[in-house]
Structure formats: C-alpha cells, structure tokens
C-alpha cells in the first residue's frame, strides 16, 4: 500500500504535466477573470505571487489592484515557517528569492487579507495541492486565526482534479479563478 507522500508525489507529477500543457496553449489575457474578481475588493491588502515555471501569471491583475491599495508578494523566510509578504509595486526593483521567485529588493512587510494562491492542482470543493512545503497552509492558518482571510486559488482549468490526497492541515481555498470561470466551493451555482 502506498503511503500518502507517494500518493501526493504521483498526483503532483500528473498535475504538473496538465499545467505545462495548459500553459503552453494559454492565450494572452488569462488574468482578466482574476482582475474582475479583485475589482470587488478594491483597497483591501492582498498578496499575489511572481509566477515561476508554468504557473498562470497574476501580474496584470496585481498591477491593476496596486492602483487601488497595497499589493504584496510572498517571501519565504525559512523552511517550516509561515510566509511573510513584502509590498510590491508594478515597476519596483526585484531580487531573486528562494526557489527562483522574484521578491521586492527592499522588504516592506504587510499582512494581506486576500491571498492569490498558486497551486499544482485543485478540486471543486476548494482543496488545493501545492508544492509540498506547507508554506501556504501554515500562513493561511496563522492569518485566519487573526481575521477573515480570503484564499483565491489561481489556476488553469486543466489543473482541476478529483480525489486529491488532502490532509487535515491543508487549508481550503475560498474561491478558484481560472482562465474561464470562477468557482466558489460550498456555494450553489
């Protein structure tokens, strides 16, 4: 019988392949639907992310949101620790952070109330399969203990999967935005 780590590794491998295929076929403007969603939260501090590899790119939506309120990007501080979020400006100077993701050259930390979350796979119930470091799970747990925190998964439609190997510590997504739709787990329609 396979253990959970093996099951998750297999699920990630399959999801990475689907994501790479979707990324290669993606039309420009995939962040348009994310911009529409964020327009309903103007001025609320939010965190996006700097896309790496074949992640869907939220930068256009982040740039639009930055005109109305603070936008940050995640900074990995140490293994096993929650993320911190450094204020990002569309034309601000960047440096390479851990795992090749770019982060602001000068840290100016803030706590977002909305997190745009990258992922490897998601399910219709708001489950998320990440990279395996637990950074977003720890961070969402910490932030949600303080105040309502909205977690928006941003992904290609092709990243949806059934039967994700989830654990009790996995933090659910409140919403998933893809290039074609907005899913709100737990809400009809």
UniProtKB/TrEMBL annotation:
BP terms from Gene Ontology: folic acid-containing compound biosynthetic process; tetrahydrofolate interconversion
Gene Ontology molecular function, alphabetical: 5-formyltetrahydrofolate cyclo-ligase activity; ATP binding; metal ion binding
EC number, UniProt record: 6.3.3.2
Pfam families: 5-FTHF_cyc-lig (PF01812)
Primary enzyme class: ligase
Catalyses which reaction(s): (6S)-5-formyl-5,6,7,8-tetrahydrofolate + ATP = (6R)-5,10-methenyltetrahydrofolate + ADP + phosphate
Keywords, comma-separated and alphabetical: ATP-binding, Ligase, Magnesium, Metal-binding, Nucleotide-binding
Protein name (database record): 5-formyltetrahydrofolate cyclo-ligase
Species whose genome carries this gene: Marinibacterium profundimaris
């Amino acid at each position: 019988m396979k253990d959970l780590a093996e099951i998750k590794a297999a699920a990630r491998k399959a999801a990475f392949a689907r994501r790479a295929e979707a990324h290669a076929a993606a039309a420009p403007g995939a962040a348009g639907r994310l911009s529409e969603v964020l327009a309903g939260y103007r001025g609320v501090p939010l965190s996006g992310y700097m896309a790496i590899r074949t992640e869907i790119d939220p930068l256009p939506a982040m740039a639009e949101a930055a005109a109305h309120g603070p936008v940050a990007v995640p900074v990995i501080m140490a293994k096993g620790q929650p993320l911190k979020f450094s204020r990002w400006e569309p034309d601000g100077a960047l440096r390479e952070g851990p795992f090749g993701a770019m982060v602001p050259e000068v840290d100016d930390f803030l706590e977002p109330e909305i997190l745009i979350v990258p992922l490897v796979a998601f399910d219709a119930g708001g489950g998320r399969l990440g990279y395996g470091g637990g950074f977003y799970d720890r961070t969402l747990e910490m932030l949600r203990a303080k105040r309502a925190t909205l977690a928006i998964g941003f992904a290609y439609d092709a990243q949806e999967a059934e039967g994700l190997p989830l654990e009790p510590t996995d933090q659910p997504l409140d919403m998933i935005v893809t290039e074609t739709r907005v899913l709100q787990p737990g809400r009809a329609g």
